[in-house]
Design goal:
Strand order of the largest sheet: 4-1-5-6-7
CATH architecture of the largest domain: 3-Layer(aba) Sandwich
Number of helices: 11
CATH topology of the largest domain: Rossmann fold
Mean pLDDT: 90
Strand content: 5-15%
Radius of gyration: 18 Å
Order of helices and strands: HEEHHHHEHEHHEHEHEH
Distance between the termini: 34 Å
Number of domains: 2
Shape: globular
Helix content: 40-55%
Largest sheet: 5 strands, parallel
Number of strands: 7
Bound molecules: magnesium ion
CATH class of the largest domain: Alpha Beta
Structural class: alpha/beta
CATH superfamily of the largest domain: HAD superfamily/HAD-like
Amino acid sequence: MTRRHGDTATRGTKTKKEELRRVSASPNLRVPELRVLLWDLDGTLVRGKRFGAFKDYTVPMLEKVFGTAGSLHGLVVSGMTDLQIVEEALRPAGITREHINSRRDELLQCYMDEMKRATGNGQQILEAMPGAREVLQAVNKDPRYASALLTGNIEPAAQLKIEITGLAEFFPLPGAFGNESFDRRDLPAIAAQRINKHLGAQLQPEQFIVIGDTPNDIACARHFGARVLAVASGRVHSADELRVHEPDALLDDLLDVELAMRTLDGI
Ligand SMILES: [Mg+2]
């Protein structure tokens, strides 16, 4: 788990956090050079070792809380927030958003219980995407960039995923998560508000770059006015499919660190 990366992990994050504190403590808070990278998780930084592995814990979770997993077995969920997945899956069973909201605490608790049960030490079903660690390391070293999560995962699930894949050290800024909205398009504004408060800054929407593997990632960036780098490393959407949605840049994967850095510089 995190212990594998323990010491360097703590040092890396601390250094970056101190650097960001210096930036935000400067008299001129426009921080015009800073670009905040809002990273999607599934299909971009981490993946299940087999397609649909997340259903190992989400199906029993829904069955426990609502008595049915509805249509989850057949649902393609890429780019959706966890709350949206629950709503879509349960709609055919007549379960409403209001009902889901009324059981939200129980839902989140049961989600984590089932996820921990299914993932064990995490190695069985989750891995970092090839190149993800190296690109995160490179951007973390670069003073022009700071990273945060922007994911459809509920927050504790996102934290667990970055811990078991050894990526937890790379996110010095607060992000936005799938338990905060039924619509991914709401998440960039939530993240930006949190980050501006954290830095004491007023970053503009175009200083944010959303990085993700689905049309929903592109749509949420556009809704907020952020830039967007699409990465065609997810299992559902090809590079050609993503290109139709006109991201600012498109990569096949994160394997080439220099190419990824050059691409971010050009956005
Ligand atoms: Mg994704």
